[in-house]
Amino acid sequence: MLAWLEAERRKYDVGMVLKLALIHDLEEAITGDLTPADKRILGAPEVHRARRRAMDELIQNLPSNLRGSYRRLWTDLRLLRTKEALLVHELDKLEMAFQAARIGRRVGRTRVQSFFQSATREIKDPELRRVLNKIAS
Questions:
Q1: pLDDT digit string (tens) for 19-33?
Q2: Among residues 96, 78, 80, which one has the least CA distance to residue 37?
């Protein structure tokens, strides 16, 4: 919903944003939602391999005439080639920070600080950055 609403507000291609968000979430349904610590432990090459395997698994179940367009969307998202892909990427990090803030109220802010640090490194959009600063403080 966040991606949909933000895409409409910015007058971005809503269909593209929704497809990118779904592809991202489907991939995470297979790989799991990797934490910043998970990514450090696994290393970038292994994280990329896991994501590629997940996308290959998803794409092989699509009709053959759709596989190329979905692979291009996945590549756009991984390489952040479009404004829509960048928005989905940054909203994913913002959503992670929302979850960290909620969990932090229960377990203490210091236990979720790495999530806020990760979001801070990734979110460059000024509007999303203001939201992040509010929930991280």
A1: 999 999 988 888 877
A2: 96
Residue 123: exposure state from Cβ atoms within 10 A (0-12, 13-18, ≥19)? buried
Q: What's phi and psi for 61, nearest 5 deg?
A: -90, 0
**Structural domains of the chain ordered from first start:** 2-136 (1.10.3210.10)
Q: What is the dihedral of CA 121, 125, 130, 132, to 10 degrees?
A: -40
Q: What is the pLDDT of residue 94?
A: 96
Q: DSSP labels for 93-104?
A: HHHHHHHHHHHH
Q: Where do we find the tokens 């968000």?
A: 21
Q: What parts of the chain have a pLDDT lower than 50?
A: none
Q: For residue 35, what pLDDT is reported?
A: 76
pTM equals 0.87
Residue given tokens 């990797």 in the structure block: 34
Cβ partners under 8 Å of residue 71, min gap 6: 55, 59
What's the CA gap between 67 and 79, in Å, rounded? 18
| Residues in the chain, overall count | 137
Tokens 């291609």: give the residue. 13
